[in-house]
Structure formats: C-alpha cells, structure tokens
Amino acid sequence: GLALDVPVTSEWLAGACPDLEAHPAEGGLSLRGRITKSGDDYLLIGHLGGALEASCGRCLEPALVPVDVDLTITFVPADEDDEEVADDEDVVGFAGNEITLDDELLDEILLALPLQVLCQDSCRGLCPVCGGNRNAVACDCEAQQRQAQAQFATLGKLKI
After folding, report:
1. Chain CA centroid to CA 145, Å
2. Burial 58-84 (b: 16+ CB within 10 A, else e)
3. pLDDT digits (tens, 9 = 90+) for 63-112
4. Threshold 0.85, pTM exceeds
5. For residue 51, what are the β-bridge partners?
6. Of 56, 31, 26, which Cα lies nearest the Cα of 120?
C-alpha cells in the first residue's frame, strides 16, 4: 500500500471552498492513512485530524473546532454514468490512473464543522447596543436603554 500524510493548507481550503470562513489552526489539519489495492479497487483507511479556526458566531473572536474523523473509502474504476457508484457514499468512482481525494476531504471537513461555531458554550456574544464583547467587559447598555425608554414613555401618551 501507499502511506498518506496529506496536510490541509489554508490555500487549498480557500480554493476548494471559497465561502468557508475557516482555516487550519496553528497545530494544522492533515489526513494520514494508507491506500491499498484490492483487485481493481483501492481502499483508503485513514484519519483526518487536527483543528480548524473560525470566528465565533456570537462574539466574532477566534474559535477552535477540533476535527477527529476516521475515513474508510473504496475507490473503484467507474464511468461518470455509473449509478451503482453514485448511490454508495463510501464508494467513489475514478477515471483514468489518478485518484483525487479533494472532494472526500472537503466533505469530511464540512461535516465536522458545527452549524454555529462557538468559542465556548457560555459565550455571551456582542452587546447589540454598543457592540462590545460581553465576555471581556460587563455591559449595561440594554438596561440603560430600557430605562431611557421608560422615561420617555409618558411623552407617547400626550395628545397634540
């Protein structure tokens, strides 16, 4: 078999999915495994591990997303019209003499990302009034805004 150690770079990730607002974290992200031949088919057994860095969905600070995925994919020689290959998610067809891992790698990365990335479960987010990070500084803007609205509420009752 052929041993694999494929690093996932920021450039590759940006090219493969330009709308993804994440990049490999400082420790990196890589696919390690082995491809072995079995008849005409090739079997990839590997592990995608590391971390991605993305913006927190609440406070916009950097957040780490761990990626820890085991992969088992069978690559089979196939035509583009081969329906049998298209129906099985663990079987991927390839044409010619080259197997490309890009699509499978991108699928696993996208599946590893949560719908909302958070820096921590208890993230308090940004203040809707002043925009400050409520994790870093206590903010009473909303209370002040409610108090100001209450003071002017009597003006709303005036008839002119």
Report:
1. 36
2. bbeeebebebeeebebebbebeeeeee
3. 999 999 999 999 999 875 555 555 667 789 888 888 999 999 999 999 99
4. no
5. 66
6. 56
